[in-house]
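W.,

You were right to be curious about this one. When I first looked at the sequence I had no strong expectations either way, so I just let the prediction run and decided to look at it fresh. Below is the sequence, 134 residues in total, followed by the output.
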Amino acid sequence: LNPSLQKFYGYLEAIALNRDQPEELDDMTLPDEQGFRNVQQMIDEFRDSVYPAGYDPASVQPTAQTATKRKSENVSGDEGRAKRTKADWEHLMSSGGLSKLTIDNLKEYLREHGLRLSGKKSELVARIEEHLRG
């Protein structure tokens, strides 16, 4: 509640009811200082129960953990890797590894075998599987 509006309506009510003074207002927007003191005391008690005496959290250096990116398998051979053989592709198909390859890797196979390159990844995988099955 807005304290200014409460005060205004308090005076309006006092005039309407022929009172000399409006009723005392309790400003509910002010912070509860006693409540803050109680909470601070609880925080201090918790900290003392968790950390040993003399522990300074500011002196501890956080360790940064970074995620490592998984390298995609290369089909094109651009990085010195030999191109996969038909047996390699059949093994990928039987083990479910085709769906783990990148779209570029799948398109490289399709390009080498003169197959259509358009479509979603799942369509490319299905096209390669169909080609491998003969």
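Here's what jumped out at me. Confidence is low (pLDDT under 50) at residues 75-80. And, maybe more interesting for your project: The radius of gyration is 36 Å.

Coffee later to discuss?

I.
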